[in-house]
Design goal:
Mean pLDDT is about 80; it is low at about 1-40 and about 45-50. This protein starts with 18 loop residues before the first helix and ends with a helix. The chain is about 40% helix and about 15% strand. The chain is of the alpha/beta class. The protein has a 6-stranded mixed β-sheet, with helices on both faces. A 6-stranded mixed beta barrel has the order 13-14-19-16-18-17. A 4-stranded antiparallel β-sheet has the order 2-1-4-5, with helices on one face. Helix 9 packs across helix 17. Strand 7 (about 220-225), helix 7 (about 235-250) and strand 8 (about 255-260) form a beta-alpha-beta unit. It has 20 helices and 21 strands.
């Protein structure tokens, strides 16, 4: 209770009365003689308390006969602490002084739960720290303690705001709340304008201020300051000490380690360390064995784990890119193999092949046949065979082409040019197409149109495309292709056939590469029939007959039946099957490449992650000192490996899709001679994409698991000292 002084006023001790109660005290002025009633003055306006809700319940400490020894069989044996017993009550401000190497930092590590005593007991917040599990110690560091390190221990690649919010991230606080609190803390230390700056770009004084702001992020009850002014000038150091004193006045327990006597005097109690022993102890307040429990923190969210992993992978762009490339090569090869397997199977049963040369059987006269040609009766017999979907013959004759283009007066018209006229396959019966150099194919089986070979167009005096749209006149000299020693179906009474040139084709498309042209099936057949009536021919209309099987499985059986009838037969699937064999060999080669690439990628990921653990050992120590559990550290490194796998999988899938499209285009060009349709030999679907991504992530995660386990097992004290 505040006491009244001799004048009747109320004395208010600002150190014992909360600020809110001070604001509620009415100020009563002395009454004036002429005033009968006292005037109640308004309470003074107090500035807002920017430090409100920055601290948790004050933590008391107790050490009972604590010793700490380092070294083992192969290491030098060092005793850092020798039988230290002391108590630090809640809300005390204690400084620990002594020369370098006397055990001050070791004592601080034991109080903060970063280390365990070799013998004796350490109690913090009523908890036996030496007997707690690693998980419970991590919770103690996260929720009860904050350490201000002499070397700042900021993560250089993170921004100032992210460094301050790191304890909140580990505690699973939502992003908006983390940012709000981090900016508020930065404003308290005067660095709100540097929130988005990388920590490595700050001066020493600014880094120390960021470390102080980070120490307040999770509302600690115990603040451990390890030489907080050792790297600062006098002005910045004074500011840090004033802040620690203010936090102590507001209810925090502060333990300050220093070797500077002037700094030590700022504390209310001093403990001197010499050769690992605590001497010259002043009487401290008794601590408590048990304090109010703290609700378990929700811990690091998976989104934040992934974000930290992405940031870690981005610190080493070249190494990450090379590792990602290995994953991408393996996944691309595997995806191509799967796409090829599915696409090839689909291509063999595609509708485009149902009328292609793959399903065709070409029938030739027997070697000892006298006529060397077929008539309509033979065509009908072959068409009646089982599994024959369509049948047609090839009508071919020898003769001359004459240009029908008018010439100028006095000019000599070009002489007729010899050439063959060959019938095209009936429209709709075959999907085989000609590789035209220019123009188009005839529109129907009865059109009076022709596709000239390039050599025939040149013989008629046309320059390739110049022949298109012109009219030519064909006059047959023989009802069959003339070969040396053959005079089958000679023409004694010629007939002219006028045709319009609609396209130009390579001479390789003509039988035996002979010059000439190709006209619609019915047009050439009707012309041959007219010549046969006029010249009295008795047969030999077709030079070859083509049979179209109703399925690919029926081709070989149909071929055997034709040969059993005494004819020669040939299938046109050999080219496609050769290509299929080539693709099969490519599948084996790609599979080997994929396995090698994936193996190398896994080794690369393991090497990358192991190197990352070595490079970030100090960062791991900082994370654990801030309250990260071993599981949190493990997940961060596993997430980094998974990110590399995800990136590699995405790149690999994109490469596979691109190469698959190029492959399909190449296959379409190769199969134009046997089919007019397109073939998706590389068929990539959603299942392939999803499987590739999952495989990349799983392999990368497994490869990074061992380095991640190594990181999770790091000792926080040794890790922070690693350079």
């Amino acid at each position: 209770m505040p006491a009244a002084n001799r004048d009747g006023d109320v004395d208010v001790d600002a150190a014992t009365v909360p600020l809110a109660e001070i604001a509620a005290i009415a100020v009563l002025p002395e009454p004036e003689p002429s005033v009968n009633q006292a005037v109640l003055m308004p309470p003074p306006v107090l500035e807002p308390d920017d430090f409100k809700d920055l601290l948790g319940q004050a933590v008391g400490l107790r050490l009972d006969s604590v010793s700490r020894e380092f070294g083992g069989n192969d290491e030098m044996h060092v005793t850092a602490l020798r039988d230290v017993s002391l108590e630090i009550g809640p809300c005390e401000f204690v400084s620990v002084v002594g020369p370098s190497g006397c055990g001050k930092t070791t004592l601080l590590s034991l109080m903060g739960g970063l280390d365990r005593p070799t013998s004796g007991h350490v109690y913090g917040a009523g908890l036996p720290l030496g007997e707690l599990s690693e998980r419970d110690l991590a919770d103690y560091r996260l929720q009860r303690v904050s350490t201000i390190f002499q070397a700042f221990n900021l993560i250089p690649s993170m921004t100032v705001e992210d460094n301050v919010a790191l304890p909140l991230t580990l505690a699973g606080i939502e992003l908006d709340e983390r940012r709000r609190r981090a900016r508020h803390l930065l404003a308290l230390v005067g660095l709100e304008h540097r929130a988005r700056t990388r920590a490595r770009l700050l001066s020493g004084g600014e880094q120390q201020k960021v470390a102080v702001a980070r120490a307040l992020a999770n509302r600690p009850g115990l603040i451990l300051a390890d030489e907080p002014t050792g790297s600062l000038d006098s002005t910045a150091g004074e500011g840090v000490l004033n802040l620690l004193a203010d936090l102590n006045r507001r209810g925090a327990t502060v333990v300050l380690v220093t070797h500077d006597p002037e700094v030590a005097r700022r504390a209310r109690r001093v403990i001197r360390m010499i050769d690992g022993r605590a001497i010259e102890l002043e009487g401290g307040n008794p601590t408590v064995r048990k304090q109010e429990p703290v609700d378990p923190a929700p811990r690091l969210h998976w989104r934040d784990t992934l974000k930290v992993g992405v940031g870690s992978a981005g610190r080493r762009p070249l190494r990450t890119a090379l590792t990602t490339s290995g994953v991408a090569i393996g996944i691309a090869a595997m995806s191509l193999i799967v796409a090829l397997a599915g696409g090839l199977q689909g291509a063999l049963s595609a509708p485009a092949l149902s009328t292609s040369q793959v399903h065709q059987v070409a029938v030739y006269p027997a070697a000892d046949a006298r006529g060397g040609a077929f008539d309509n009766g033979t065509l009908s017999t072959l068409a009646a065979q089982p599994h024959v979907r369509a049948a047609w013959g090839q009508v071919a004759m020898s003769g001359t082409f004459a240009s029908g283009t008018p010439v100028a007066a006095g000019a000599t018209p070009p002489p007729p040019s010899s050439g063959a006229l060959v019938s095209l396959a009936p429209v709709g019966s075959s999907s085989g197409t000609l590789a035209l150099s220019a123009g188009r194919l005839p529109r129907s089986d009865v059109a009076k149109e022709v596709v000239l070979s390039d050599s025939e167009a040149a013989a008629l005096g046309y320059l390739s495309r110049g022949a298109i749209g012109t009219q030519v006149t064909y006059s047959a000299a023989s009802g069959a292709l003339q070969v040396p020693g053959s005079s089958r179906n000679p023409v004694a009474k010629p007939l002219d056939l006028k045709l319009v040139v609609v396209g130009i084709v390579s001479g390789n498309a003509m039988p035996a590469g002979a010059p000439g042209g190709m006209a619609p099936y019915a047009t050439v057949r009707d012309y041959w029939a007219a010549l046969a009536r006029t010249n009295g021919w008795k047969g030999g209309e077709y030079s070859t007959i083509t049979l179209l099987a109703d399925s690919g499985l029926a081709v070989e059986g149909l071929r055997a039946r034709v040969e059993a009838l005494g004819f020669q037969a040939q299938t046109f699937g050999d080219q496609f099957r050769s290509f299929e064999d080539l693709l099969g060999k490519m599948r084996v080669a790609l599979l080997g490449l994929a396995l090698v690439a994936l193996l190398l990628a896994c080794l690369g990921i393991a090497n990358t992650m192991y190197t990352a653990v070595l490079e970030r050992t100090k960062e791991i120590g900082v994370l654990k000192a801030l309250g990260a559990r071993a599981r949190d550290v493990l997940l961060i490194f596993v997430a980094e490996a998974a990110v590399i796998g995800l990136a590699g999988g995405l790149v690999g899938i994109l490469v596979a899709v691109g190469l698959g499209r190029l492959g399909n285009s190449a296959v379409d060009r190769l199969t134009q001679s046997v089919s007019s349709g397109s073939f998706d030999v590389f068929r990539t679907d959603f299942a392939v994409v999803a499987a590739g991504l999952v495989l990349a992530i799983v392999l990368s995660t497994v490869s990074g698991l061992l380095p991640a386990l190594r990181a999770a097992r790091q000792d926080p004290v040794r890790a922070r000292r690693y350079e």
